[in-house]
Inverse folding.
């Protein structure tokens, strides 16, 4: 706050003060001119000392001129971050919805098993889709509210851990089955986690 005040004084006031006192010097008596010169010198020196103590410089005095450009860069960066985060949340959502459609066919593929086994398989199949939907939902929510907050960062890290855990499980199990959709599971999970990580850190 104080440095901003000094910068504004340093940029605007000395020039006005100098012009005013130069005019007064031209119109005044010799003694008045000497007094005004002394006053101008003292005030200018005081400002320079204050800038030196506060660490202000020409780079700082020029900061307002570059502020619009910096603000635009920050806005572009925020937009890119949000795009990456939304993309990272969209992938598991899409995969979860696609996961639900073949549920009956998947259960039927196990052949003649008991009703209880069919229910267990159905439950587990739907649970994975629900978990993916939940991850997508929380990432969407915190990104929409404030993607820069501490809570959002925590949610992103937890989502990354969960997605990579699912990816490892898929690599050790379904990936070994000769069926393309099963082999795509770790690809979707890992890609989603990478997008979220990039959106959080870039």
């Amino acid at each position: 706050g104080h440095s901003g005040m000094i910068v504004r004084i340093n940029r605007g006031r000395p020039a006005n003060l100098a012009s005013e006192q130069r005019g007064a010097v031209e119109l005044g008596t010799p003694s008045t001119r000497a007094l005004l010169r002394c006053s101008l010198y003292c005030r200018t020196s005081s400002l320079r000392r204050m800038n030196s103590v506060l660490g202000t410089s020409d780079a700082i005095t020029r900061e307002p001129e570059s502020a619009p450009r910096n603000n635009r860069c920050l806005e572009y960066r925020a937009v890119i971050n949000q795009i990456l985060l939304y993309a990272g949340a969209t992938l598991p959502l899409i995969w979860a919805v696609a996961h639900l459609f073949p549920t009956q066919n998947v259960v039927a593929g196990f052949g003649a098993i008991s009703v209880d086994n069919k229910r267990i398989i159905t439950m587990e199949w739907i649970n994975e889709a629900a978990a993916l939907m939940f991850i997508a939902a929380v990432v969407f929510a915190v990104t929409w509210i404030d993607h820069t907050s501490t809570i959002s960062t925590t949610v992103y890290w937890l989502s990354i851990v969960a997605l990579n855990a699912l990816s490892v499980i898929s690599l050790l199990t379904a990936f070994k089955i000769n069926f393309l959709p099963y082999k795509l599971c770790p690809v979707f999970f890992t890609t989603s986690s990478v997008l979220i990580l990039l959106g959080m850190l870039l």
About this structure: Residues 63-100 form the longest helix (38 residues).
